[in-house]
Write a structure and sequence with these properties.
Belongs to the class-II aminoacyl-tRNA synthetase family. The protein has 430 residues and is an alpha+beta fold. It has 13 helices and 19 strands. The strands form four sheets. The protein has an eight-stranded mixed sheet with strand order 7-11-12-19-18-17-14-13. Strands 2-3-4-6-5 form a five-stranded mixed β-barrel. A three-stranded antiparallel sheet has the order 8-10-9, with no helix packed on it.
C-alpha cells in the first residue's frame, strides 16, 4: 500500500510504501535510524540488520542526506515519537543519491541559509512554519466564506497609490507610469459597493529601505471591505477573525507548534474581545514607561508598540490616531477633528502591528477636500472619488499582514521565515 507520512495512522501493523527523502540518519553495527520526510511530515524509519537482507542494511548505512527513495515497512505505534508512529523498514529502493548536500545538521549562518533558501525549506523547522502558513490561509478562506464575504482580486499593477508613491516600485506600463500595488484597498472599496462584504488575498509591495525583523519588500495581505459597516463593527470582525486564525492553528498544527517550541499558553488566551486603548492614552502610557521623547502627533515605532503590548495579555487595538498620521481616506472622528476613526492591532510579544484599518470617508465633498489636501492627481483618482458620489454609504475595512501574523503565531523571530522565498532589502535570490 502506497501512502504518505500524514496518513500512516490508518495503517498500523500494516506494510506500506512511502516516497521520501533522508532528512538525517544515524546507525550502529546492528541498527540504522533514518529520519524520513515526504512533504506531509517526518517519521523515523528503523532498519534492523537481523530482519532485512544485507543489501538493504548496507543501503541504510550508506545512504546520504537528502537522497530520495521508496521505503517499505510496517507501521508501528511509538509513543516516544512526536508523530506517534515509526516505520520498521523491510526494503528500500533508492531513486536518487544526493552528493554533498550543503545544509548539514550543524549550525549555519543566516546568510548561508538564505542563499540556500530553496533547500532550507526542507528542514523540519521551515516545514513547520510553512504548514502553519498554510493553516492560516485555509482558515482565512473558511472564516470569510462562512461569514458571507465574496473574494475579489484587485490588480497588482496600478496607475495610482492609496498612500502616496514614495514607497512604491515604479515600472513602465507601455508608455505610461505604473506601480506595483502596496494595497488593494481602493479597489476593494469599489467591490464592496457592488457586493457588500468582500475580501482580497494577494501580494503587495513596499519599497521601504528597512532591515527590521518585521519588514519584507514583498508580502501578502488580506484586505476585507464592508459596506454599511461602522468602525466599531469592523473592530468586532477583526478580533473575531484573528481569534479564529489562532484557534485554528492551535487545533490543527499542534505538531508544528511543538517543533517550533511555541508557548501555546499565550496563544490560548487569544479570544475576542480584545482590549482597546486610545492614541491619547497610549501616549500617556508610554510616558509612564519612560518614553519621554514621544509627543502627541508622533507615530509609534517598534519599541513603542512593544511597550504598549506588554501591558496586555492579548492583541490590543490602538484607536483614534491623529489625522495627520493617517491616509486621506479615513473618516474623521464625529466629536474631534484632530483624530480619525481608525485602529492598529498590535500583536503581543513584540511582533508589532498586524492589522491597520478604519472607517472610510463616504462624503463626496470631504473626500474631494482630502484628496486636494494630499495633492492627489484628480485624473488618476477620479474613479475612486466617484464611489462617494454615486450611492455612497458608510463603510469600513482593514488589512492584515500575513507574514507578521504567521511570525507571531509561530513564535519565530523574523518574518523572513514566514514566507517561502523572502524579498528583503538586499535579497532577490533565490
Amino acid at each position: 500500500m502506497k501512502t504518505t507520512i500524514a496518513e500512516v495512522h490508518k495503517y498500523v501493523d500494516q506494510e506500506v510504501t512511502i516516497g521520501a527523502w533522508i532528512a538525517n540518519k544515524r546507525s550502529s553495527g546492528k541498527i540504522a535510524f533514518l529520519q524520513l520526510r515526504d512533504g506531509t511530515g517526518f517519521i523515523q524509519g528503523v532498519v534492523v540488520k537481523a530482519e532485512v537482507n544485507e543489501e538493504v542494511f548496507q543501503k541504510a548505512k550508506s545512504i546520504t542526506q537528502e537522497s530520495s527513495l521508496y521505503v517499505t515497512g510496517m507501521i508501528k505505534v511509538d509513543e516516544r515519537s512526536p508523530l506517534g508512529y515509526e516505520l520498521l523498514v523491510t526494503n528500500m529502493e533508492v531513486i536518487h543519491e544526493a552528493v554533498d548536500y550543503p545544509i548539514t545538521p550543524k549550525n549555519h549562518g543566516t546568510e548561508f541559509l538564505m542563499d540556500n533558501r530553496h533547500l532550507w525549506l526542507r528542514s523540519k523547522r521551515q516545514h513547520a512554519v510553512m504548514k502553519i502558513r498554510n493553516e492560516v490561509i485555509r482558515a482565512t478562506y473558511e472564516y470569510y466564506n462562512q461569514n458571507g464575504f465574496t473574494k475579489v482580486d484587485p490588480p497588482i499593477l496600478t496607475g495610482s497609490a492609496p498612500e502616496g508613491t514614495t514607497e512604491l516600485f515604479n515600472t513602465k506600463y507601455f508608455d505610461e507610469d505604473a506601480y506595483l500595488s502596496q494595497s488593494g484597498q481602493l479597489y476593494m472599496e469599489a467591490a464592496a459597493m457592488a457586493l457588500g462584504k468582500v475580501f482580497s488575498f494577494g501580494p503587495t509591495f513596499r519599497a521601504e529601505k528597512s532591515k527590521t525583523r518585521r519588514h519584507l519588500i514583498e508580502f501578502w495581505m488580506i484586505e476585507p471591505e464592508m459596506a454599511f459597516y461602522t468602525h466599531e463593527e469592523s473592530l468586532k470582525v477583526q478580533e473575531e477573525y484573528v481569534s479564529y486564525l489562532v484557534q485554528s492553528v492551535l487545533k490543527n498544527c499542534k505538531l508544528e507548534l511543538g517543533v517550533l517550541g511555541r508557548d501555546t499558553s499565550k496563544l490560548e488566551q487569544v479570544q475576542a474581545p480584545f482590549p482597546r486603548i486610545t492614541y491619547d492614552d497610549a501616549i500617556k502610557l508610554l510616558h509612564e514607561k519612560g518614553f519621554d521623547d514621544i509627543q502627541w502627533g508622533d507615530d509609534f515605532g517598534a519599541p513603542h508598540e512593544t511597550a504598549i503590548a506588554e501591558s496586555f495579555d492579548k492583541p490590543v487595538f490602538i484607536i483614534h490616531y491623529p489625522t495627520a498620521l493617517k491616509p486621506f481616506y479615513m473618516q474623521p472622528h464625529p466629536e474631534r477633528e484632530d483624530v480619525v476613526l481608525c485602529a492598529d492591532l498590535i500583536a503581543p510579544e513584540g511582533y508589532g502591528e498586524i492589522i491597520g484599518g478604519s472607517e472610510r470617508i463616504h462624503d463626496y465633498e470631504l473626500m474631494k477636500q482630502r484628496m486636494e489636501e494630499h495633492d492627489l492627481d484628480p485624473a488618476a483618482y477620479d474613479w475612486y472619488l466617484q464611489l462617494s458620489k454615486y450611492g455612497s454609504v458608510p463603510h469600513s475595512g482593514f488589512g492584515l499582514g500575513l507574514e507578521r501574523t504567521i511570525a507571531w503565531i509561530s513564535g519565530i523571530e523574523h518574518v523572513r521565515e514566514a514566507i517561502p522565498f523572502p524579498r528583503l532589502l538586499n535579497r532577490l535570490y533565490p
